[in-house]
Design a protein that fits this description.
By secondary structure, the chain is mostly helical. 63% of the residues lie in helices and 0% in strands.
């Protein structure tokens, strides 16, 4: 796991996202160090230098704090959404969930993935593919040769643009 700064650990704690153990796991900071930072040397949380005291007296999140924890939160949320979607799909097979439930779970996962991709500067969707005349014929010809796709392509249409 990549070592992260105490600033990230503090942001994770300040916004009530993770326990000291999870903060330690996500940041690589030893759990005892995280506990001392959170609760102070005496463990009471009453020391004005500890994070618990500060969290009780500082209710707002800053943009810098959000930016520091966003990758961890998105990753954590994606993992949970994937786990939920997988569980729903298992339950659809067992008639305990509907296809609507599965669709909602996958939709949530898709939206979280788009947010993650957008934050990383990656494409969030494919809006079009440009093929020249020979490429289009090759694609259609290959699909026709594969018997498992015959039903899909009987009525396929494509437009050839001469540029």
């Amino acid at each position: 796991m990549m070592k992260m700064s105490k600033e990230v650990a503090k942001s994770l704690f300040m916004h009530n996202q993770f326990s000291p153990e999870k903060i330690s796991y996500n940041t690589g900071i030893p759990v005892e160090t995280v506990r001392k930072l959170i609760y102070g040397d005496d463990g009471s949380g009453l020391d004005p230098e500890c994070w618990l005291y500060e969290r009780m007296h500082t209710p707002l999140i800053t943009e810098e704090q959000y930016e520091a924890i966003a990758p961890v939160l998105i990753s954590h949320t994606k993992a949970n959404a994937l786990r939920i979607a997988s569980k729903v799909m298992e339950n659809v097979d067992e008639d305990e969930a509907t296809l609507t439930d599965a669709s909602l779970a996958v939709d949530i996962l898709t939206k979280i993935d788009k947010i993650d991709r957008l934050d990383k500067g990656k494409a969030t969707s494919i809006t079009g593919v440009e093929l020249d005349r020979m490429d289009a014929k090759d694609v259609v010809g290959e699909r026709r040769r594969r018997s498992d796709y015959i039903d899909d392509i009987e009525d396929v249409e494509y437009e050839v643009r001469e540029d």
